[in-house]
Amino acid sequence: MPLIVISIIKAAVVAFVLLTALAYVQWIERKVLAHIQLRVGPYRVGPHGLLQPLADVIKLITKEGVMPSHVNKFFYLMAPFMAVALALISISVIPFGTKLEIPALGFSTPMELTDVNIGILVILAISAVGVYGVALGGWASNNKYSLLGGLRSSAQMISYELPMSLAIVSPLLIANTLSMRALAESQAGFYFGFIPKWHLFQLFPLQIIAFLIFVIAGFAETNRVPFDLPEAENELVAGFHTEYSSMGFAGFFMAEYCNMITICAVATHLFLGGWQPIFPAPYSDYVAPLIFLLAAAFLIFHSLQTLKTRTWDKYTFPAFGVIFGGLGAGLLGVVAFVPWLREAIIPLFWFVAKVFLLLFLFIWIRGTLPRFRYDQLMRFTWLFLFPVALVQLLATALVVALWN
Amino acid sequence: MDAILFLIFAAIAVGCAINLVVQTHPISSALSLIGVMLALAVLYLLLGAEFLAAAQIIVYAGAIMVLFVFVIMLLNAGAEQRVNRAQFAKFLGVPALIGFLGVVSFLIQTLMPNTKDVVFGAFRNGTAEAVGRKLFTEYLLPFEVTSLLILIAILGAVVLARKEI
Questions:
Q1: What is the number of CB-based contacts under 8 A between chain A and chain B?
Q2: How many CB atoms lie within 10 A of CB B72?
Q3: pTM
Q4: Are residues A88 and A4 in the same domain?
Q5: In chain B, what are the domain boundaries?
Q6: What is the pLDDT of residue A307?
Q7: Domain enclosing residue A22, as ranges
C-alpha cells in the first residue's frame, strides 16, 4: 500500500478515536467529580450515563448559535476554530505504541502519524501558538469579563511556559534526542531487574522534581483547576467563553480536553516511559487481560446482589460483564498465541493506561483543590517554580555531563 | 511538490505582510505578523532547517507576539485614525516603491551574480544537534556576546520596572 493511503487511514482512525476519547474523558470527569462530591453524576442517558457524551454532542450541535451584536465578527468566529484546530494538530507527532506488523500480508507501519526529529519542539510550538485561541476569543467578545479572562490566560500561559520548558529539557538531556519515539525507546529496560528505567526513576530526586514541575505547569497551560483563573465562575461569569454558545463553546471545550490529553501523553513519553511496561516483559503482558477479567468478575458479582439502585442494572451489569470477560479472554488468547498482535496491543495498552492515570490525576485534583488567587498564581510560578526548575536543570546537566 | 508548497507559503507570507501594513486595527496587524512568521517557519522547514522552524514559532509567534497582543488588548487600542495623507506619498508612493525594488534587485544581481539554485532537501545540517554544535564551537563568541546582551536587556527592564513602583 502506498504511504499516502496508509497515512490517510491512520489519520482517520486517530481522529475518530481521539474525538471519542474526548467525549468520554468528559464523562469520566463528571463521574469522578460526582463521586468525590458524594453524588452519582450523569445517570439518566444510557446505563450509568454512558450515552451522556452523545446527548451532549447532539445538544451542542443543534443549539442556536447566538451571535452577539457587539462582537468583532471575524475574530469571534476564528477564535474557537483556532483553539480546536491547534489542539488537534499536536496529537500528530505523538506515537502510541511500537508498530503494527501483519506478517501474513507483509504489512508494517509504526503506530503514530509522523515521527519528526523535533517532535517535542513541535508540541511546544503548537502549545505556544494555542494561547491565541483563548486570548482572541476573550478580546473579540468585546465584554470586560471575557477580556479579563483572555488576558489572564495569556499572562498565565507565558509565565508557566518557562518552568514547563525547563522541566522538559532535563529528560531530553538524559535521552539525548528530541524525537518522541526515540525518547520512549530510550527508557526500555530495568534496574536490578525490577525498577523500570523510566526517566522518572533516573538521577533519583531530580527527575521526580522535573515531573512535578511539568505536571503543575501542565495544569496551568490547560487552564485547569487550581489554575483556571481564565474562566473563574465567581469572578468572571465564564471568562473567555462567556459570549460563546453552541459550536463556538463546543470548540473551546474540545480544545481544553484535547490539550489535557496531549499534556498527559507528553508527560507519559517524557517521564513515564511511554509504552514501556512497569514489570519485565513476560509478566507485564498479562496485566491487560487480567484487568478486563477482574472488571468482568466485579460486574457479574454485583449483578448477582440484590440491587436497589437502578432497575436496569440487573440487565446491563451482566451484559457489560460478559463484554469485558470476552475482551479479557480475547486478550489472553492474543497474548498467548498471536505474537504479532501482542506486539501491537500490549504497548498500546500500557501507553493508554498511563495517559488515563494522569488524566485521572487531573480530575482528582479538580475535585480536591480550591482555586488560586491571581497574585498567588504569579508569585508561585516566578518566585518558586521557575527558580526550582532552573536549579533542577543545572543539576541534571551537571550529572549528565560528569557521567558521560 | 516542494516548489508548489514553497509558492503557497511564500504567497501567504507576502499576503500577510501586505495585510499587516494595510489593516488599521492593531490586533489585525499583529495577527497578520503572526501569519508572516508561521509562513516563514514553513519555508524554513522546506529548506531543511527544522530546528530553526520550531524556534521561529516558539520564540516569535509563541512568546514575542503573545506579549504584543497582550499589550494591545490591555491598552484596548482602537482602530488607527487616518488623517490627510501627504500629497507626495499619494502620487509618488507607488512609482518610488517600484523604483526602489528595481534598484535593490539590480544590486543583488550585480553583487551576487553566480549564486547556485536552491535545491529542496539538499541542506541536511538543520537538526538541533548540528545547530548546537555550530553554536558552541564555531560561533561561541557571538553566542556568548548575545546572551550577555540579553542579560543586560533583562536587567534594564527590571530597573525600569522598579522605578514605577
A1: 74
A2: 16
A3: 0.85
A4: no
A5: 1-79, 127-165
A6: 61
A7: 1-62
Rounded CA gap, B158 and B165, in Å?
Answer: 11
* Interface pTM, i.e. ipTM: 0.78
CB contact under 8 A, A129 and B50: no
Tell me if A242 sits within 8 A of A146, measured CB to CB: yes
Closest to A110 measured CA to CA, from A172, A184, A175, A168: A184
Burial class, A19, CB count within 10 angstroms (exposed 0-12 / middle 13-18 / buried 19+): middle
- Please check whether residues A116 and A174 belong to one and the same domain: yes
Please state, in angstroms and rounded to a whole number, the distance separating the CA atoms of residues A224 and A234: 15
Contact call for B54 and A124, based on CB within 8 A? yes
Cβ-defined contact of B127 to A158 (cutoff 8 Å): no
B5 touches chain A (CB under 8 A): no
Mean pLDDT of chain B: 84
Q: Is B94 on the interface with A (CB under 8 A)?
A: no
B107: distance to nearest CA of chain A, Å? 37
E-assigned strand segments in chain B: none
Q: Which helix (H) or strand (E) holds A393?
A: helix A386-403
Q: What pLDDT was estimated at residue A1?
A: 66
Residues A370-373: contacts with CB within 8 Å, 24+ apart? Answer: A370/A226, A371/A225, A371/A226, A371/A227, A371/A228, A371/A229, A371/A232, A372/A226, A372/A227, A372/A229
Q: Cα A37 to the chain's mean position, in Å?
A: 23
Per-10-residue mean pLDDT of chain A, 404 residues long, equals 82 88 88 88 80 87 81 83 87 83 75 81 86 83 82 83 88 85 82 78 82 89 79 73 80 87 90 81 78 84 70 76 86 80 82 90 88 84 89 89 81
For the domain made up of B1-79, the CATH class stated in words is: mainly alpha
The helix/strand/coil state of A195 is strand
Q: Which are the contacts of A15, defined by CB distance < 8 A and separation ≥ 6?
A: A88
Is residue A394 one of the residues assigned to a domain?
yes
The full length of chain B comes to 165
Cβ pair B50:A155 closer than 8 A? no
Contact B32, B23 (CB under 8 A): yes
Cell numbers at A344, concatenated = 501491537
